[in-house]
Design goal:
The chain has about 450 residues and is of the alpha+beta class. Helices cover about 25% and strands about 15% of the residues. Strands 1, 2, 3, 4, 8, 9, 10, 11 and 12 form a 9-stranded antiparallel beta sheet that branches. The chain has a 3-stranded antiparallel beta sheet with strand order 5-7-6, with helices on one face. Helix 2 packs antiparallel against helix 13 and helix 3 crosses helix 9. The longest helix has 15 residues.
């Protein structure tokens, strides 16, 4: 099985000098984190658009917490795709071998990973088969489903509109949206839902799993009509319930405020300034050259239904650039000011969260000072983490392993440990819900207090 890797000089980071690219490497060494984009790996694979058939899977819901399985035609493809351990040389050889051996052949067809230090991309690698139908190997440039990592893009645009004064966190946008969509609101509490409550999953919207993953809606607008005409779980702002409805609706709010298509707004306001030109929104069966073909059951519409909650595709390096773009201490362009990002990382007042982590405004936050997001849909998992020690990483898979997407972090920690990078310690317990960070917990709540911008 071909393995594609690309590494760059680490210098003082690991003390090993210039790294050699692995066996089957594409493109050699380059500094990838500089403004203005990066060398493209496998660019020839993106020069045409080819439709491919997706293999059936057995999952019928595909929610954040659902375990999916690959069976039928795809199980034989998975067996055929099981490779030997990744063959890499240089400082990341042990890292690549550890990560690939824990995922490929254990439920995953393809894996892609990117690691940055202080805003500079230092390693990219991909393993396995990107398209079981054509046999195309995965490459660092292969576009995977972001799933709920898409929510970060929606949140960034919303917060940029707040920052520029075109929206306010306390605005109540749903009555106008319902009127535009021709929806009769049944629950009067819907009218009081704020932008902030949508961003923090405290609006009261139920999960609506059937709507998004069971064929209940063929696009995000249809899904929003269902949500706006339904009933809330409780008064807005009093309960945390992770629901894709919140970010589907926020994508439509972006269109209402800007008068432009959601995808175009994200491209122009976030991706293009970050130097990202390979990401797009994709339909459930919209697979083009350079895209990963995630095994997918026939007759589903979850990518279309998710919209701003989960329909983006891109690379692991794209995820790293998006998250590093929120840290104004790192080089390059930044869509949001430091104070705005700090607000996104705070817990919501009065909301009980799982010990050791909480949900801010479009971002997940952990008590060890890390933050980022995860994503899960049928046969796709992804995770991106920004650490307080300067490391940012992202990993994306085509397959159903691990069953709990958060366990990607355990795999990554084990792989990083082989090259001398330890997990960050827990620096403090979570702050009281909604409380501002103290001086001793600035790494938990956001960028250091000395960072400007």
């Amino acid at each position: 099985m071909p393995t594609h890797t690309r590494s760059v000089a680490l210098g003082a980071i690991l003390g090993v000098g210039l790294l050699a690219a692995g066996i089957g490497a594409v493109g050699g060494s380059a500094l990838l984190g500089a403004p203005g984009g990066s060398p493209k790996v496998g660019a020839a694979a993106r020069s045409s658009s080819t439709a491919v058939a997706l293999l059936p899977g057995s999952d019928t819901t595909g929610t954040e917490s659902t375990t999916t399985t690959i069976d039928g035609a795809s199980s034989s493809a998975l067996g055929a795709a099981t490779p030997p351990p990744a063959a890499s040389t240089g400082a990341f050889a042990a890292f690549d071998k550890t990560l690939s051996s824990r995922l490929i052949g254990h439920g995953d067809l393809a894996v892609s990973v990117a690691v940055a230090r202080n805003g500079q991309l230092i390693h990219e690698a991909a393993f396995g088969v990107a398209n079981p139908t054509t046999g195309a190997a995965a490459a660092p440039s292969s576009r995977f489903r972001l799933a709920s990592n898409s929510k970060m893009l929606t949140a960034i645009v919303i917060m940029e509109l707040v920052q520029s004064g075109r929206l306010a966190l306390n605005d109540r946008p749903l009555p106008a949206l319902a009127a535009d969509l021709g929806v009769a609101v049944q629950d009067p509490r819907v009218a009081s839902v704020t932008v902030r409550q949508l961003l923090s999953h405290t609006s009261g919207f139920p999960e609506y799993d059937h709507t998004f993953f069971g064929g209940g809606a063929k696009n995000c607008t249809d899904a929003a009509r269902t949500g706006l005409s339904g009933h809330l779980l409780g008064p807005p702002g009093t309960v945390y319930r992770y629901s894709n409805m919140n970010f589907c609706v926020l994508g439509l709010v972006i269109e209402e405020v800007t008068g432009q298509h959601y995808e175009s707004v994200v491209q122009s306001r976030v991706l293009t300034p970050l130097g990202i030109d390979d990401m797009r929104m994709a339909g459930t069966y919209d697979v083009r050259a350079g895209d990963v073909a995630h095994p997918t059951t026939a007759g589903r519409y979850f990518m279309e239904a998710l919209g701003g909650a989960g329909a983006w595709i891109g690379t692991a390096a794209d995820l790293v650039r998006i998250v590093d773009g929120l840290d104004t201490s790192r080089p390059g362009w930044h869509p949001l000011a430091t104070g705005t990002v700090r607000r996104m990382l705070l817990a919501e007042p009065g909301i009980p969260y799982t010990a050791g982590q909480w949900y801010g405004l479009g971002l997940r936050v952990w008590a060890d000072g890390t933050w980022g997001h995860t994503g899960t849909v049928q046969n796709a998992r992804s995770m991106v983490i920004r650490r307080p020690d300067g490391i940012t990483w992202a990993v994306m898979v085509s397959g159903n392993a691990p069953s709990n997407t958060d366990q990607l972090r355990t795999r990554m920690d084990a792989a990083l440990a082989t090259i001398g990078i330890s997990p960050p310690p827990i620096t403090a317990p979570p702050p009281a819900p909604g409380a501002p960070p103290s001086a001793s917990t600035t790494t938990v709540a956001g960028p250091p207090a000395t960072v400007g911008g």
